[in-house]
Amino acid sequence: WTYHHDQGPVWLRITYEDGLAQGEERVFYDSGAPLRTGRFAAGLPEGRVEELDPEGRVRRSVEYRKGLREGAVSTREGGVVAAAEAFVAGVWNGPRTLVQEKESTTITYLGGIAHGAAEGTHAGGEKRFRGAYESGLPSGAWTFFHPNGQVSEEKTYVAGRLEGQVRAFFEDGKPSRVEGYLHGKRHGEQRAFHPDGSRAEEG
Known about the structure:
Layout: E1 2-4, E2 10-17, E3 20-28, E4 34-41, E5 44-45, E6 47-52, E7 58-65, E8 68-77, E9 80-88, E10 91-92, E11 94-100, E12 103-110, E13 113-121, E14 127-134, E15 137-138, E16 140-145, E17 151-158, E18 161-162, E19 164-169, E20 175-182, E21 185-186, E22 191-193, E23 199-202
Antiparallel strand pairs: 1-2, 2-3, 3-4, 4-5, 4-6, 6-7, 7-8, 8-9, 9-10, 9-11, 11-12, 12-13, 13-14, 14-15, 14-16, 16-17, 17-18, 17-19, 19-20, 20-21, 20-22, 22-23
């Protein structure tokens, strides 16, 4: 079968057997340049599927087994890595890194659920935060950083809920805010400070 874009150029070439996609699949941009190539077996993606950007550069290359993603997958936007992921039986397993406006976020997954270390960097490569997940929920101590390396915020999660003090700091290390939490809700004294150290508010 051959399908076409509205303007006429070929969009998709694919073969069917007994109503199911079988064999090679080829997808094209309206310019005629290749967009995706892959293969099907009994209606499911099987083997290597490769996506290209309009300039012909590999945007994503994915290995499929019986329709499920398997192994490492790297996605590029404009030739630059935008995501690095690993799959087992179609679900995330291991570190998953996403890059947006040069800031990266890496979260560890186990069986498709966030579980383990989490960290991020600023656009310049400086550490942006570090923490951890447990069974899909933020857990334990989380620390955030200004681009200059100074701590910007410290907080603790228990079963995904804030617990204890949340402390925030200006770029020079002076405190900017202190808040108390109990079972995820504000509790106790709340204080905020001006950059010179004087009290801005309290309650």
